[in-house]
Specification:
The structure is a single chain. It is built from 17 helices and 9 strands. With 414 residues, the protein is of the alpha+beta class. The chain folds into 3 domains: 1-247, Helicase, Ruva Protein, domain 3 (Orthogonal Bundle), CATH 1.10.8.350; 253-339, Lysozyme (Orthogonal Bundle), CATH 1.10.530; 358-413, no CATH class. It starts with 12 loop residues before the first strand and ends with a helix.
């Protein structure tokens, strides 16, 4: 289950999308370059598709009157199709992303939001047993604490994308879910605005995620994530994390220092060890003291061996269900830490490196595969299999096997 639209797990590059979202958000998480590619659809074509979709929606339980009122004014949105089809030409490095996502302004605004909503957040935390700082951090990343919630008409966007056909089943399901929201009387058509991909409200829920986990925390009979009052949205986010397995009192992770001679092949979420074993290997908190005994943990290097290292726990994976990009999870966790008074990330980043373009990422995967290192496909998406292939290549070349897909690795492959 994912609250934003979809995302891909990355270590070195940021191409995040959220509970079901894919939008250009206030964090600057997605950087897109228009390719000039536009959809081939038309308003007449959309209206014809709506006519064929109507019986299916009614068969799914949507009242005919609701369907007709919602779709009567639906508009074909070519820019939405363009955004959905256009591949990411450029992505941000994690350090550039964090500079914006956990900026001093975002930290200060978050602390203000914590104070302004202290009683509400205490009540939400008491009910769902999810750390209020994490909930507020998600709020900050998704909508800049409610100041940017998106203004695209969700019904038109979902209808446009379903009609376009590239991911018809997914967007038809989202459209039916949005119609159910209207059918249940919990929102008016004018309320349903959000990102181009249909994510809505203070914490950017996709319609299906709203149906699954949204809660009426105010008790007014509506699960209102759209209005100026953030209560239902923040409670729904806490409910989402609780349902995803949040462990009360467990850290998401913390910045650590790795000992000289550390085995970098151990740096992957697939390698889980008790905290005592990591401590015995010389892993230490960057801020001093001892490692928290919060169960099994993994070491994550989102910027490679030259960047910050994190020891991550089960709650890291819980936040990951909200958005699968590692950079997003680190941003949420670190912002939450800053909101409670924690320090900035202490380690430096390899700021001399740049992110690879889509063409370069695709070329790297192709060259890794041709060299006998299984990269899991040639699609430009840097996931766990590509990271493992980079590690295997680095090891064969006598390099530090940190899995970071840098331009140097591509140059060596060439």
């Amino acid at each position: 289950m994912r609250a934003c639209a979809w995302g891909m797990s990355v270590l070195a590059l940021v191409t995040v999308a959220a509970p079901g979202r894919a939008q250009e958000s206030p964090t600057g998480a997605i950087i897109r370059k228009d390719s000039g590619m536009a959809g081939t659809g038309t308003q007449d074509g959309l209206e014809s598709w709506i006519a064929t979709f109507r019986p299916r929606a009614i068969a799914a339980g949507i009242a005919a009157a609701t369907f007709d009122a919602a779709l009567r004014g639906a508009t074909y949105l070519p820019k939405v199709v363009e955004r959905d089809r256009t591949q990411n030409e450029f992505t941000k490095t994690i350090w550039d992303y964090l500079d914006t996502a956990v900026s001093e302004d975002r930290v200060q605004n978050g602390r203000t939001a914590l104070r302004a909503n202290a009683a509400l957040l205490a009540a939400i935390e008491a009910r769902f047993a999810v750390d209020r700082h994490v909930v507020v951090a998600i709020w900050g990343l998704e909508s800049a604490y409610g100041t940017y919630r998106g203004d695209t008409p969700v019904i038109s966007a979902m209808a446009t994308l379903a009609y376009d056909g590239r991911r018809a089943a997914f967007f038809e399901a989202q459209l039916v879910a949005a119609l159910r929201i209207l059918d249940g009387g919990e929102a008016e058509l004018a309320d349903l605005t959000g990102s181009w991909a249909g994510a809505m409200g203070h914490t950017q829920f996709m319609p299906t995620s709203w149906l699954d986990v949204a809660v009426d925390f105010t008790g007014d009979g509506r699960r209102n994530i759209w209005g100026n009052d953030p209560a239902d949205a923040l409670a729904s986010t806490a409910a989402y994390l609780a349902k995803s397995g949040w462990v009360t009192g467990q850290a998401w992770g913390l910045e650590v220092a790795l000992p000289e001679g550390f085995d970098y092949e151990q740096t992957t979420e697939k390698v889980k060890k008790p905290v005592a074993e990591w401590a015995a290997m010389g892993v230490r908190p960057m801020a001093g003291g001892t490692l928290p005994d919060d169960g099994t943990a993994s070491v994550l290097l989102p910027g490679g061996a030259r960047g910050a290292a994190f020891l991550i726990f089960g709650n890291f994976q819980v936040i990951e269900t909200y958005n699968t990009a590692d950079a997003y999870v680190v941003a949420v966790g670190h912002l939450a830490d800053r909101l409670r008074g924690g320090p900035p990330i202490a380690a430096g980043w390899p700021r001399d490196l740049r992110a690879l373009t889509l063409d370069e990422r695709t070329e790297m995967q192709r060259r890794l595969t041709d060299a006998g290192f299984v990269a899991g496909g040639v699609d430009g998406k840097i996931g766990p299999l590509t990271i493992a292939a980079v590690k295997a290549f680095q090891k064969s070349a006598g390099l530090v096997p940190d899995g970071y897909p840098s331009l140097d690795i591509l140059t060596r492959l060439r």
